């Protein structure tokens, strides 16, 4: 019986050493991966031919956009809270109109800011281009958050004339062009 007790005691000791070794080895790896953050937005662009309207919905992480607004406009601004100042919409609109540009049939068009809403940690921004009778070509530039995060990627998905396309835009390539001729 002593032999078995010593065996289990040694096994238990080896198990604790193995567990400690794994903990020491894995903890820094987990810490490193949890520090890494992804910077991404998703923009959906739909052409509604019956309404002669290009409707745009951008989904952006609230904390990333809040950091941008703090750096650009107001270092104390807070989004998505009960204390959100009314000026926040003005800042969001001003920024998006500067960073999301569209040319339809080789002509720049006005992108109207409709509003925004919050869903968890995401801010949904709604934009629209009106009075578009047809689209032969569309050029979309999306530079949202590129001025704050070098790693930022903006996924742009389109549905125009029932054709779906998507592209990942980066700081190095922030424009996509689609032809419908």
UniProtKB/TrEMBL annotation:
Domain of life: Bacteria
InterPro entries attached to this UniProt entry: DUF6702
Annotated protein name in UniProt: Peptidase E
Organism: Litoribaculum gwangyangense
Lineage: Bacteria, Pseudomonadati, Bacteroidota, Flavobacteriia, Flavobacteriales
């Amino acid at each position: 019986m002593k032999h078995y007790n010593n065996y289990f005691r040694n096994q238990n000791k080896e198990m604790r050493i193995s567990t400690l070794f794994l903990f020491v080895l894995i903890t820094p790896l987990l810490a490193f991966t949890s520090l890494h953050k992804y910077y991404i937005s998703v923009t959906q662009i739909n052409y509604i031919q019956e309404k002669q309207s290009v409707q745009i919905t951008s989904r952006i992480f609230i904390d990333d956009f809040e950091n941008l607004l703090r750096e650009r406009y107001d270092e104390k601004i807070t989004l998505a809270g009960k204390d959100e100042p009314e000026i926040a919409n003005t800042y969001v609109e001003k920024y998006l109109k500067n960073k999301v540009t569209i040319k339809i049939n080789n002509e720049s068009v006005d992108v109207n800011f409709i509003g925004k809403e919050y869903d968890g940690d995401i801010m949904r921004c709604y934009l629209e281009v009106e009075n578009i009778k047809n689209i032969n070509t569309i050029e979309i530039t999306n530079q949202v958050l590129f001025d704050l995060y070098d790693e930022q990627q903006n996924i742009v998905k389109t549905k125009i004339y029932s054709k779906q396309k998507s592209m990942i835009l980066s700081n190095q390539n922030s424009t996509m062009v689609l032809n419908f001729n």
